[in-house]
User: Fold these one by one.
Assistant:
Number 1:
Amino acid sequence: MLFGNKDSINKSEILARADMTDEKLEKLVMYEIIHENNNIIGLDDRITTFIEEFLEIGEVTTSFINDNIQSLSENLKYYRIDSNPKFLRSIKRSLKKINSTTSREVMKLHKNIDDTYKNQDNYVIKLQELDKYKRKRDDIINLIKESEQIISEAQGFFNTVIDAELSSIVLDLRYTLVRNRDYLNEIQSQIIDYINKIQYQAAIYRKIQRLKELKDYEELKYKTNFVDVVASVHALMFNKTRAALKGRISLDFLHSDHGYMLTQKVAQRLHLLRNTFRKPAGKMESGFDDLNREESSSLNIAGLVDKFMLANSDLFQFVLKYKFPEQVGELSLEKRISLYVGICIDYDNKLSYTDKFGKMDFVNARKQKQRVGYAIIHPAKNAGVESQPPAEDSKKAGRQQAIADHKEEAVVENGLSAVDLPVDTEPKKKRRKSVIPKA
């Protein structure tokens, strides 16, 4: 682009470009694409007009609509006099131009009104520009009404001409004129709203200028009640210490795609994503857990739990102070803690958890002081010891086994099988001696 957003540019600026030379510039001037005046270069007016019409920008010109309406009226008269097809083609062309030019000028009018209100700094010029567009809006309304009147008067003529294309063009033009008229009514209310806002802002601006003038002359406090009015307003902008307003983002928004993108941006800004991209871990060596398996196999955890069920202590202190056999060796504090956690998980039904916690200070291998907290766990009251039977049951079972062995010896001596004799289940009662006949 040679000009960018400028209407004209200096010749030295164009020649400073790497892709521009004097020969190319002379060719552009020779082909009347650009024109030069006192080393100032600009586009030709015809090209500027074409671009504005194609992009539907530039000033609003109602003369195009008026010219097409006059051409339509003339061609209708000519076709009534002489039914020449060229007049019919001219009628169709005029109807299409009225359709396109009316829509284009309405869009340009709306765009220019917005640009004037938002970009014009001077209030006086802004009001005059809006008033000018208001008059052009009225002119377009009158041209639309004139076009509708011509079409209504020529409706009988359109009905006599058997041409499907002409009927489609007329129907489309009717719809476009109605739509543009409604749109212009909205533009009218928009212009009035803009003018009211400008007048209100202009009045405030004049008051501010007057207050500034009084302040420069140090008469603001004595000739006005400005200080009292400002003191009665408790707006946030007048507070010396502004509290930071913190709002929480909803979880539904964070779960959405837009929320995910927002969190990614925040995390990237706070450098929270520096450890997310890591290389995968290498393959584990075979037999890496053999040492743990040997230690767990040498430990009789079930027997340890049975001993704990008979002890009067909590589980952590019991595991911490327990003396393991020589074949197991001395366990470190970390292994005893792991054993404590494993018993809590595997023998949950035999344990009674309390709502109390204990703490213990210790020094680790690096000679650093640390503190560990643990839950105080006691044996469950309804859980029995499976590996060791009660004392009475063991004595009773021992007596039964001794009597059975004695009888078996007697039976073997006499040549009988022990299966034919009943087992004495009551060793304490006296029984008569049975006489066993010899074979």
Note: The longest strand covers residues 351-363.
Number 2:
Amino acid sequence: MTKSISEKENKAIGKDELSINRFSDIGKIHVNWDIKELGYFLDYFQPTDFISEYVESEKSEINNIPVLTAGKSFILGYTENNNKTYTRIPVILFDDFTTDSKYVDFPFQIRSSAAKILIAKKNIDFDFKFVFYAMQQINFVSSDHKRYWISEYQFLTIPCPPFKEQELIAKALNTWDIAINLCKTILAELQRRKEWLLFELLFNNQKYFKSNEIKSLPVSKLLRRIKRPLTPNPLELYTQIGIRSHTKGIFYKEAVTGASLGNKSVFYIEPDCFILNIVFAWEHAIAKTSVREVGMIASHRFPMYKAIEGELDLNYLLHFFKSKKGKDLLRLASPGGAGRNKTLGQSEFLKLQIRVPGIDEQKKIAACLDKVDEEILLYEKKFSELKNQRKGLMQQLLTAKIRVKYEG
């Protein structure tokens, strides 16, 4: 639970101290700004009349009203426009249990009664979106499973600069929101384009090649296992690798002594190998090794395979297994229940059938998909930078470390 800093507590500070330091629940504020509780600005009501009875995952001509949650996913799906659609916007959607919040300026329905709909109180002159931005800066820990708005959250305090300054702060931050949303839209479109290209180039490629140019071969005809075992020196340091799920690549663990490895079976990493984590291969824990990992080690849970020269381009194979169909094949070769019980059967893995054109065409396809991945990485980096810039700017503006200029 986070303790709210009330007006009384601020007034309890000596006059000399008050002229220097005044605090709201987002930190120190400017001496000329007021401090107000969230409940001063916002009223609430339960979303009971606006809860959607069903949700479709895809938007359509009929199902075109977003169904929302205040959590990270935000838009859960879509439903038809009916008397459950809320239209008196804008509002703040507030998750009463997690205290997550979303600014909503379009008609919507809601999925759960766990949220509250926050609206502007009447006859108070303030900028609604400014208050939303200030809420995002509150560091509140919702440690108990209970509803928070009535009992605690509405009493948290935020800075209250003059109305014109609120407007300009909100406008500045909204500029970053527009850029972030545009970048997010571009990323989603790039991902859709990549999915289309993956399907066309890997699984629908008979339209591009003659039938005799495409083979269906087992993995055993395309890859050969590489194993270079190591007997650790107890006094030397060794860096082990791991593989993130969801095709997020290789990561490096903290170096350990050979003595700490005990009797663990470990192997040197070889460059330019297809490598996977047999425990989480079903969850897309796959990657390609590089010269950066030379000298590092991995356990028996990370088998490595070299491409058979003239038969397979390793980048082509990596894109194949990064696809949805590739992931489905890895799941088929990983029998058992969820989690650590779904271990990849390496003999089953080697039996999986892969569609491959000639080696030159494989390289062209892989190069095309590599370019798409590079563009996606570029926009992911830009997206992350914009969010960090917005976060920093928000903190600076809402604590008056940076002031917007206005007349008045």
Note: The CA atoms of residues 161 and 359 lie 66 Å apart.
Number 3:
Amino acid sequence: MQPHVVEQGPGNAKGIWYPDDAGCRSAADEFEDLFPNVCTALELHLEDMEAYLHRPAEEILKWRNVA
């Protein structure tokens, strides 16, 4: 499983993104809709990639504003 970041936006908006997949983002108004939405986005994003590498969660947690 790769690390991901969930953000609370204005109002009910919530966003999710993967630090190692530039451009792969998703959003939803309800928290329970985030995971299905981002699974679809990730499938489409990775569809044409032959190799995929991700960074360890420990490295990403050192970034500012990521917890």
Note: The radius of gyration is 12 Å.
